[in-house]
Amino acid sequence: MTDSKYFTTTKKGEIFELKSELNNDKKEKKKEAVKKVIASMTVGKDVSALFPDVVNCMQTDNLELKKLVYLYLMNYAKSQPDMAIMAVNTFVKDCEDPNPLIRALAVRTMGCIRVDKITEYLCEPLRKCLKDEDPYVRKTAAVCVAKLYDISSGLVEDQGFLEQLKELLSDSNPMVVANAVAALSEINESSPTGQPLVELNHATINKLLTALNECTEWGQVFILDSLSNYNPKDEREAQSICERITPRLAHANAAVVLSAVKVLMKMMEILAGDTEFCGTLSKKLAPPLVTLLSSEPEVQYVALRNINLIVQKKPDILKHEMKVFFVKYNDPIYVKLEKLDIMIRLASQANIAQVLSELKEYATEVDVDFVRKAVRAIGRCAIKVEPSAERCVSTLLDLIQTKVNYVVQEAIVVIKDIFRKYPNKYESIISTLCENLDTLDEPEARASMVWIIGEYAERIDNADELLDSFLEGFADENAQVQLQLLTAVVKLFLKRPAHTQALVQHVLSLATQDSDNPDLRDRGFIYWRLLSTDPAAAKEVVLADKPLISEETDLLEPTLLDELICHISSLASVYHKPPTAFVEGRSAGIRKTLPARQGSVEEAANQEATVIPNQESLIGDLLSMDIGSAVPPAQPQAPPTSNVDLLGGGLDVLLGGPPDLGGGVAPSTTGLLGDIFGLSSAPTMHTPPKTCWLPADKGKGMEIMGTFSRRNGQITMDLSFTNKAMQAMSGFAIQFNKNSFGIAPAAPMNMGALQPGQTLEYNLPLNTNGPVQRMEPLTTLQVAVKNNVDVFYYACQVPIQVLFIEDGTLDKRVFLTTWRDIPSANEVQYTINDIKGNADSVSAKMTHNNIFTIAKRNVEGQDMLYQSLKLTNNIWVLLELKLQPGVSHATLSLKSRSVEVAPYVFQAYDAVVKNC
Amino acid sequence: MIGGLFVYNHKGEVLISRVYRDDIGRNAVDAFRVNVIHARQQVRSPVTNIARTSFFHIKRANIWIAAVTKQNVNAAMVFEFLLKIIEVMQSYFGKISEENIKNNFVLIYELLDEILDFGYPQNTDTGVLKTFITQQGIKSATKEEQAQITSQVTGQIGWRREGIKYRRNELFLDVLEYVNLLMSPQGQVLSAHVAGKVVMKSYLSGMPECKFGINDKIVMEAKGKGGLGSTSDTDQTRSGKPVVVIDDCQFHQCVKLSKFETEHSISFIPPDGEFELMRYRTTKDISLPFRVIPLVREVGRTKMEVKVVLKSNFKPSLLGQKIEVKIPTPLNTSGVQLICLKGKAKYKASENAIVWKIKRMAGMKETQLSAEIELLETDTKKKWTRPPISMNFEVPFAPSGFKVRYLKVFEPKLNYSDHDVIKWVRYIGRSGLYETRC
Predict the structure, then answer these.
(1) 3-state SS class at A464
(2) What are the pLDDT digits (tens) for A726-779?
(3) What topology in the membrane does the UniProt record assign (chain B) (predicted)?
(4) Assigned CATH for B290-395
(5) What gap in Å lies between CA B62 and CA B39, rounded to an integer?
(6) What number is the ipTM of this complex?
(7) Is some CB atom of chain A closer than 8 A to the CB atom of B279?
(8) Matching CATH topology for B170-222+242-285+398-436 and B290-395?
(9) pTM of the predicted model, to two decimals?
(10) Domain ranges (residues) in chain B
């Protein structure tokens, strides 16, 4: 006899029949009837009408029957609160039963019945059960406190259950401890004030760590998860927690392993100063993470989503483990796609050959999504690993030759990105691309192709015909294709005005007169007006240099990443979204952040910087940047919570990933770290003291002090942010206006929240690949800083010595010929006063600042130093320094083809010579 | 935490539904059916978010098991738990099927009540569960027995009850290894690893303490060193015995992890009966038992020639068994002519593959198969993407070089010693995903 027959009753009058069976005297009949009721309940039939009859069966010695009745009660008590009262007596009685299993069952079930009147009666039995002699009852009661808190938080606090629960943390039985921890964590997270009701302290943490060794796998997860919310009071404690948790990495349960990883990742943040300890710890993390990939596919999926985060936070951990992420033929698609993501993140010069041959293999698979992603990945490799770009491009060309429609389209989208990363390098393949014009039917691929045609219109002989062919169906195109077409035709016109006037007029009229899309109309009108009033300006705007795209456009925003690291193994880490994005109400909990590593402030009050008062003065520039960059909306999707929107088109620059700073150290923190722990070998180059760039009264409470420095060839903007307002500031982003030397942030700003009264140091790495525009004075840099309050603008002076590059030496003969070749009109003289030291010490000091002494002569008791230096934009400056021993002033002659830099070089000399 | 747990058949009909939390309503049951089960192909992740409710699902043999939550739960734990439920159900009533689930629904509800409380997983060890959740419901037990049950459910050694007695103390160790390989057509190893496990069957009296020793590199080096400088980086220790370099290992919950961390010794009190003592992974110096050398030639548009050479690469005295090579054929295959030197080969149209079976094959041997594949003319331009050639086998040794050095048993309270225990050790090497691209 089996139970499946209970599923099959479909007769009419069934309820009535059940009713009579439930009231049957025979126990067996009763049990049969209850089973039928439960079966009906499971498939969704309403059997609430039988409530009194079922409750009548509750008083029984038969545990199985009792459990079934309880199951029924939990389901229907809410809809029949008055009837549910009938059950209270039995519950209370059961809580006194000599059998611990029955006591536990009663208290467990009572907690699940959410009826006020029953809840009142729950308190007394619960209090007793929390002190029960049997651990099985205690562990059930511990969870029941969480249930009660969910029904009535006030009741739990008033009745002192929290204290009782806290006492259970020291229980002798590890499972009781684990359940108590789980209940406490839940209560803390849902506390209405956002403040935890019960704080964990050093002593309880110790107890938890002891219980960790003895309790079930699930209990270990509860304990580890709650440990991850604890902030140790000092490094020693953090270290000892790490040591006691590390053995968990060898547990067979993936949840235990991942929760242990979460705690370790957090502790490593605190212990960041102890590089040796963190290093060994990091090494221990890799093998268990790899092992997770041999678990069931669902667990693998969770592991992979988390590894994706861990690799972004600590790229070094898995850098040698590329092979384990190779896709297996029969992996489920969700595992395949995640593996691909991680492969791209781990791709580096060392393993690129292997990765590429794998990706090429994947591009011939059957699953369309997977193939597309593989093709896209090849493009991403090209952008990320520069030396491999050529091989990637040829692989993509091979794939285009396959003529598989979606492969071709995807390839064209990524090739557009490659063009933007390496301008003027691979344009020879354009003709191959043009052959596939007709097969493109997806908007993104069409838009990319149109962009390519417009961008390289001067090299494509029949660009006008090609664009013209697109225009025929202009009205039917997707909006992004229309926008691209408009821009491309205007570009074409500006490059080859001779025969394209009709075309441009046609497209402008299409865009402005026949379209309902306001974006398209606006862009059309802007172009039209530009072209009709000032074609030269139009050229400057439309054909402006585009900022290079940076390699990792899909990195998570650092603050979000840090938050997600605190949520390793949880749903948030699977979705890559903060809990607030998918959890309702108070149970979303407080926002978690990694423990901060903070620095101190240094004071300097030198009011040299100018604050740009309003935004209007910048508008012209901003506009040109926006349109000029004409980014096809093909960028990989932005992180969901990114609220950075500064200077419009600069968005992709801001979201761009950090550059590879040589050693492969996590770039987001190097600057900060170096500062705090004094790792940097004291900068040998002269760095001016910080000056106030944005006073607090102009920055709505945010004060910015800063200076520029150059260390190991890297220019950095060293900033101190002070929050003098009452509110925390967050969402920082920075952007520079075009400037004389093309200085631009090398990485988006990555700074956490700034609490009131707090000062944070931030070193922003810079490069000189940004757009160039001559400024007056030459070294002026206009900066915009955004936070959650507003956008602020200021201008500062860049000390020119940070732009002197390391390979500024000239051969003696070259120096001589160059010196002679530069006309004397380009020679400027200057006198330096207050020189300390002799020719040799001056020369040595100069070398530290990348001013190189080529030769030294002694003429009539005077020391002549011949020096050269080179600026980032390849301007050579030649100098002759005349020093007289015992005399504190010297004469400096400067020759350069761009003599306008002279005054700034003299300033630099003054600064260097006088700074000892 | 987990808000509810549903079990569906392949049509999406609910077989089991248990709600643990108030925030999960009845509509969640239908939401999953409509958005996941009926959507079939579109769902491409085991985690689905529908209207701020998250569904975790696993599907085994036409049965869907879904956990539902509205909170930010520990996702790895939910999946591990779902897998555990399957394990528990299997140990109670065998195969997971619609019929079995319907037949045992009362039992399943009882189990779900016990192993998940308010969405928090409790003790899920089948051995312990079976002591108090029986198919017939609990028999009236004496007070002592009840106390024993509860202390065991919550106990520090939750996986073993006291008072076990055997006339013959016996234990079996199976070292089971799965060799995974991905090889390029040119014979270059793209990736290879061994996923191994040690399964133990223990029939020991009392509460025996066991100590397990293997030829792990770290342990052997520490032993061989004796205070001298570190040994060189070879796979031989001073004593000349081969060692295995274990990349990572995981243990059953009975193993004292902290002791493993500090002393690198594997000590434990085993559960009674069969369990998985450890799992490990190695990537270095794997001896690959078989090598497949493919040669594919496309002769025009309607013919293909395939030659596959199979080499066995282990001691000639050993025998490989259950050898099966699966050679994929194009979808438009119309006929296949086969010649093989050893075993039987057949073209299976339903699998789009040639299946070549060899019952036994000794080490250091070589054999081959040639096939002529006739193709239908098709107008699809799309090239056939050649899936890799896969193979299955079983060999009587551990391809990683893993060796059991000892397993000592101490039972201080009972009067039997390590020598009285009869011990059996067996090594089996099987194919995992053993593929050669062609």
Answers:
(1) helix
(2) 778 888 888 888 888 888 888 888 888 888 888 888 888 888 888 888 888 888
(3) Peripheral membrane protein
(4) 2.60.40.1170
(5) 15
(6) 0.73
(7) yes
(8) yes
(9) 0.68
(10) 4-130, 170-222+242-285+398-436, 290-395
